[in-house]
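Contributing: when you submit paired examples, paste them exactly as shown. First protein:
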Amino acid sequence: MFPYSKTGYDIWFKIRPFFRTVLRIEFEGVENIPLDKGCILAANHRSNLDPFVLNTVSPRPILFMAKQELFGVPLLGWFIKKAGAIPVKRNKRDIASLKKAVELIKDGHCIGIFPEGARAKPGEFRKPQSGVGLLVSKTEAPVVPIRIEGTDIVYPVGSKIPKIGKSKIYVKVGKPLTVDSNMEYSRISEYIMEEIKRL
């Protein structure tokens, strides 16, 4: 049983080239995303467009950890549930959501997470939270760093609709990282965030 709508993703994979063209998305390194095992995709975060963009370039479905408030938004809430998103209670350590993510990774799924926990200002990065470090430590799964640029121009904080065509969007996927799972969660998260910045 899939934790997402397989039919929905089958349709999505057929139509997503259209969105890549409209949003002017350029990408490289997607071959670094493992196809046959559970893994963690860790990306910087500057726009609500980021999860959508990553799912337009990934060779497999990404199940994102998303703030719980989004699940109550009409239509969007239904859509992200069908996409297999995991609700996360912000401003406190949500053990239940982390356990769910660990379970899905061990079952062979691809989990997407933004280590910063919230959107950063244009051109900046926030200090990472320890959640991604915990996932790496508990699963020892491959963690793939990803850097996204341009989404904060196309769909900045406070904007109601994307500004299509204002900027290209760039996605660079790095090679899976070798991480010492015995390190403290916070140190693992910091290491991953530094690798994202290097891309």
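Second protein:
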Amino acid sequence: MDQSRISILLVDDHEVVRAGFKILLSAQPFIGEIRDVNRGELVAQEYARMQPDVVVMDLSMPGIGGLETIRRLCKQAPDAVVLVYSIHDEFVYVERALQAGARGYVSKNSAAEMLAEAVRTVAQGKRYIEQQLMPEVSDVRHSDIESYREVVDLLSPREFDVFCRLASGMTTHEAASDLCLGYKTVANYNTKIKSKLRVNTAAELANIAVVLGIVKP
């Protein structure tokens, strides 16, 4: 492995996306070896084998999902450098990813050059958060920030995944299919989530998600 260049492990369940990432990043002179896996369950093993400088991680994947993958990887390898590259551009996802152990966050709506710059920045031991994802202090009340932080802290990574899907209007069956989980498993999560958030209905879940910025009103 060329130690003068940055090695990368790509984690995304879409083959076309991974191929596009490889083309984009390989064009950068400071990028070295790039390997990829298509789900979170494969990350720990591939990371141990490759020891990459940076892990570029999607969040929305079947199975354990990106947030739980980050948490497990950072527990296994505290020095792991994870950069999230996700379609989710709400700040609550940024905060959740950082809490799990990520060093940076870039949305897939950003310019292609930004991903490369983010990779280089986090590889240098710095944090990189796309500026567009940071909330304007003048637009966000302190009480609102504290409220969504409290809610985020109440949910486990998997509960958060289920919460986001149910709050966006998915049925329990649809959420189970999307997460590759059994119906009863998601139903149990649904019960635990409502208990933690002290709500009884899907409408109340949706309202909380709107406050957090996860679901657009």
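If you have annotations for the second protein, write them as plain sentences, like these:
The chain has two domains: 6-133, 137-212.
The beta strands are 6-11, 31-37, 54-57, 82-86, 104-107, 128-129.
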